[in-house]
Amino acid sequence: MHQRRNGKLKSNDDMYGNLESGRRSAPSSGRGMSSHETNANIMESQNNDRIAELSEQVARLKGLTVDIGNEVRDQNRLLDNMGEGFSSVGDMLSGSLMRIGTMLESGGAKHMCYLVGFVVFVMVFLYWLVR
Fold it and tell me: Keywords on this record (predicted)?
């Protein structure tokens, strides 16, 4: 392949050979950039684009970590409240068990039959609800 410049034929090998070797071919207007400068400018713009992409990704990751931190704080608060609730339920159950024990010691067989009947009724009712 050949190009015609100023009436002269110039082969592509001469043109691209100069670009690959880093030499500047004789510009017709006298104000051209060398291939090294052109490559440096291209690489610089590519680097700037990649830096912009990375900064966007870092901003997204920062937002995500802030959201995760907020969610962790909320979950910890919920778990603390649940722990307090379970401890109060545990206190109520231990008090109930102490009263049942006192009732069984003093009340006799009649109260035991009521207790067993109540437990059986609750189990049947729960079975009926689940089914």
Answer: Golgi apparatus, Membrane, Protein transport, Transmembrane, Transmembrane helix, Transport
Q: 126 and 83 in one domain?
A: yes
Residues spanned by the domain of 15? 1-32
What pLDDT does residue 97 have?
85
In this structure, the answer to whether residues 84 and 115 fall within a common structural domain is: yes
| Residue 10 pLDDT exceeds 90 | no
Instruction: Specify whether 58 is located in the same domain as 83.
Output: yes
The tokens of 60 are what? 């997204």
pLDDT band at 103 (very low <50, low <70, confident <90, very high): confident
CA-to-CA separations, 104 to 3, 110, 114, 123, 124, in angstroms, rounded = 112, 9, 11, 21, 24
What's the mean pLDDT when you consider all of the chain? 80
